Amino acid sequence: MAIQWYPGHMNKARVQLEDKLSLLDVIVEVVDARIPASSRNPLISDIVGDKPHIIILNKADLADPNEINKWEAKLKSDGKFVLKLDAQHNTNMTPLFKLIKLAAKERIDKLEAKGASNPTIRICLVGIPNCGKSTIINRLVGRNVAIVGDRPGVTKGQSWLKTSESVQILDTPGILWPKFEDQAVGFRLAALGSIKESVFHADDVALFVMEYLKENYFKSLVKFSRLTEQEVTDLPLPELLLAMTEKYGMRDDYEKMSLFLLNQLRKGRLGRINLEKVEA
Ligand code: G4P
User: Distance (Å, rounded) from C-alpha 22 to C-alpha 172?
Assistant: First the structure.
């Protein structure tokens, strides 16, 4: 059965974005590079339609470099403009500005043909909560905190943030809610803190992550577990979780251990890990 969470929010976000689309030249969608499919809302492509569409694979510093490259290639082959980014540590936004201008080339050419010089391109950032939209906006805006007013007769009370380039950003990012087609999507989002932990039990999410790590990042799991390779291989997952709980001196508090594991995973302490790979 398809589980649909936050349908109210999702519909509201869709309507709001559709409303603003005519004001925008480029849509910049931010996704979490560790879960590039699960952190997208499938509606976005329908909403964006023919508008130039950039996808930022953000938090690239935490993701598996091999996997990000595969995702980048896949999304590019789907006709998207794609950029890998670590918005937290990287202050150089030149590649993103360049990509925005490349995506808006048709529009820029059209305006220049009408006599405009260096025309302003208007963009909006969209994405699920916690994927890094605000961080990227702050990076793009830098010290140019000035908010510019409306485009007369066209905008409906929108404010635009100036940047050092001829690019302006809608002051509020569009929040898209993820869509849970299956439980695995929900687990991935919960594992990385994109949805409230209370939606799931932490130990269920931790077991999901451990199963994935055992298959895909075995060495990282062994190192984190403080157990031997043999133990990690042989123990059924719930027993493995209990053994780790004991090793970490948490007695039988496997819930505490589960939260600790998830917390460390989110911070990149288990290494650069993707919870989602491009399907072959
Ligand atoms: P949002 O607007 O899409 O909701 O996301 P926001 O920019 O607020 O970023 C959410 C968290 O992710 C922030 O951490 C931010 O510093 C971090 N973040 C954003 N981009 C990157 C990135 O490229 N790499 C890394 N490692 N972190 C990034 P926070 O304020 O500490 O929040 P939290 O960690 O407590 O959730």
Answer: 16
- Tokens 């789907």: give the residue: 78
**Ligand 1 centroid vs 194 CA: distance in angstroms?**
10
pLDDT in tens, 113-159: 999 999 999 999 999 888 999 999 999 998 755 555 544 444 456 78
- The response to whether residue 59 sits with its C-beta less than 6 Å from ligand 1 reads yes
Q: What does the buried/exposed string (b/e) look like for 186-214 if buried means 16 or more CB atoms within 10 Å of the residue's CB?
A: bbbbbbbebbeeeebebbebbbbbbebbb
- Angle at which helix 218-225 crosses helix 237-247, to 10 degrees, equals 40
Give the pLDDT means over successive 10-residue stretches in the chain (280 positions).
Answer: 50 74 93 95 83 96 97 94 97 96 96 95 92 93 64 60 93 76 88 81 96 98 98 98 98 97 97 93
State the pTM of this model: 0.91
Report which DSSP code applies to 63. S
Residue extents of the structural domains in the chain: 8-171, 201-266
Contact, 177 vs 13, CB < 8 A? yes
Q: Is the CB of 172 under 6 A from ligand 1?
A: no
CATH architecture of 8-171: 3-Layer(aba) Sandwich (3.40)
Atom of ligand 1 nearest to the CA of 127: 3
* Nearest atom in ligand 1 to 129's CA: 4
